[in-house]
Every structure is written in structure tokens, then in C-alpha cells.
Amino acid sequence: xxxxxxxxxxxxxxxxxxxxxxxxxxxxxxxxxxxxxxxxxxxxxxxxxxxxxxxxxxxxxxxxxxxxxxxxxxxxxxxxxxxxxxxxxxxxxxxxxxxxxxxxxxxxxxxxxxxxxxxxxxxxxxxxxxxxxxxxxxxxxxxxxxxxxxxxxxxxxxxxxxxxxxxxxxxxxxxxxxxxxxxxxxxxxxxxxxxxxxxxxxxxxxxxxxxxxxxxxxxxxxxxxxxxxxxxxxxxxxxxxxxxxxxxxxxxxxxxxxxxxxxxxxxxxxxxxxxxxxxxxxxxxxxxxxxxxxxxxxxxxxxxxxxxxxxxxxxxxxxxxxxxxxxxxxxxxxxxxxxxxxxxxxxxxxxxxxxxxxxxxxxxxxxx
Length: 368
Ligand code: UDP
Known about the structure:
This is UDP-glucose 4-epimerase. With 368 residues, this protein is α/β, with parallel strands linked by helices. The chain has one domain: 3-Layer(aba) Sandwich (Rossmann fold). Helices cover 40% and strands 15% of the residues. It has 12 helices and 13 strands. It has helices spanning 18-29, 52-61, 75-84, 99-104, 106-126, 161-179, 213-221, 249-265, 283-294, 318-324, 332-345, 357-367; strands at residues 9-13, 33-38, 66-69, 89-92, 131-137, 184-190, 192-194, 228-231, 243-244, 246-248, 270-275, 281-282, 300-303. Helix 1 packs parallel to helix 2, helix 7 (213-221) packs across helix 11 and helix 9 (283-294) crosses helix 11. The longest helix is centred in the N-terminal third of the chain and has 21 residues, at 106-126. It is globular. Bound molecules: uridine-5'-diphosphate. Uridine-5'-diphosphate is lined by residues 192, 211-213, 216, 228-231, 242, 244, 283, 306, 309.
């Protein structure tokens, strides 16, 4: 893959996280230099404050990443980092994202996600960097009025605080791009990212308890959990279970490189794109696909619906295909196999024992 534009340096917030670490692989392979920050609120740090995920990214790509520990609510530190580098574009991933937790501690979510975004935008403006790719989410559509969902579907009827923070930031981006013509922003509305890099070296390893479906399925397949609880078997769907658009994390990562190319080609002010496959897959279908692709057994129990859950959500991703030249290519089978490779090579995520000293240190640290 070659870099198509003139930009060189990309600043990535939340760089040690699941989605960002996979995107950084794609960015480095496309020829960009990457400066990443993270506060380790939901990712693993090594003994001297390095990101274990980003060390693995360096191993995969043979390239280095400049990394700083920084919380976006610390504006001074953020400004200091911006003053040290000439940054061409920002990809803003950093956010806390547990739906249930967001309902319990809303102020924490508003403070972290909203103030973090405001600080980043202000620091960008002061540094005269107006190019941004924002991590948004299909959750901002709320309960779909029609399917597959297009970008002009109404947004804002959201059932949880996490989703509202994403919605409010999109509204903020609308206002600033309307008021100030320098801004050039793409908001990427992710559907359900799953899977891992095919090397098995990086993957999803939240430090908070698992809540998403695929990591839970893998934990059951490994025998760490006795069974999967399926939230609702009585929805009016093909088999009674909820439907989502699962997208391979490497396809999602490629979508970010495509967005950077588009921003370099034209001044868009603000544009939103769905990143999904367009395929609706039920919980039961995902369980069956996982069992088949990995030759494992995933016992499950169907229980009551999860509060605030949407029944069915999948993307119309035609706009991204037309305007970004991007579409999802990897199959459900590859999503399962790649996630399983990561999970079995690293049964305890980045804290798994290897001959690597960093990880030995980590194990010591987490056992303390
Ligand atoms: N789900 C489930 N059991 C779980 C976790 C999730 O049945 O332990 C279902 C959930 O109700 C939804 C789908 O799996 O229909 C995807 O849920 P996830 O939390 O991964 O993503 P989101 O709800 O944010 O789309």
C-alpha cells in the first residue's frame, strides 16, 4: 500500500486501544509517521509506561511509533505534545465506551469524552491543524426507522449516555465546521468491530470486564466462562436473537486510511460515513459461525433482553464505497478465525507469559 497524499504525520488519541492499534498498523504500512497518546484507562501498559500493544505493532510493521502517556483532560500536556511535532492530521479514538457503566457514572463519561474532545479541538486549532477523523458509532442512530441504515437516517434518539457523548461530539463538529471554514473532518460511524490482526500479535484486550459479544464467546470457547448468555430470544428477527453488522477490525482500519486520503483530496468541511459490511448477522448465527470456524463449542443460555438493546442494526455502506473507495472485504469466518488466533496465542491478552521480558514484568505487576 502506498501513501497517496502529502501528509506525513498523524496524531492518534487512544493509541493503545483495540481499534487504534490496528489502525496504526495500516497507517504505518501506508507510509505515515504516527504519534500516539493514551491514558491506559482501558489498555495495558508495560512496567516503564510503554504500550504493550504498540510494541507489538512495531514488531508487525518493523516501524516505530512515538508514544506519550497523556489524558485528554490534561490540556497543558496535550498542547506540549503538539508543540513538539508538526502534526498534519488527527484521528480521535480516545473515549470510554461501556454502555452499562455510562448509565451509572454519566458525569464521568461526559467529562472524559466531551471535555477530552473539546481540549483536543482547541489544541488542534491553536496548532493550526484542522484535519480530523473522528471515531463515531452507529449507536447515534438509536432504534432504526429503516434498514439498512444510511448516513442521513435521523440521529440523536439514543438510549444510553455513551452514545449521547458520541452524538454530542458530532453535533459539536457540525457547529464548528459551519462556523469555521478551515476544518476538514470525517466522522466514521463504526458498526460492530470484531476480529484481530492475522498475525495474532494484537487484538482486543480491555482491562475492564468484557461486555461485547465476540470476546465473550471466545472466553466461553476457552473454558474461562461456563456459557454465553444470549440477551433475548424472542425478538421478531430470523431466529429471535439480536442482529448486528460485524466488521473485521482490519477492514475498519483500512477505512481510516481511505478517510485520510479523501481529506487530502478535497476540503469536505464535515462528512459522515458508515463503516460496516451491510450484512445483518444474528447472535446465534455468530455463535454457529465461531464454532465452525474455530472447531470449538460455545454453550449458551437464552435469557432476558438487555436493557436499552437495539433489536437490529446494519449498515448501508454505499457512500463509503462511492466516495472513499472503501468497502469491507473480510468474511465472518475470517473475523472468527483471526480473533481466535489472537485469543489462543494470548489467553490472558497482553498479560500472557512469553519469553519477552516486558510481559514477564507485566505478569509480576498484575500479580502484585
Ligand atoms: N450479546 C449477547 N450476550 C452477550 C453480549 C452481547 O447476547 O454477552 C448480544 C447483544 O444483545 C447484541 C449483540 O450481542 O444483540 C451485540 O452486542 P455487543 O455488546 O457486542 O454490541 P452492541 O450492543 O454495542 O451492538
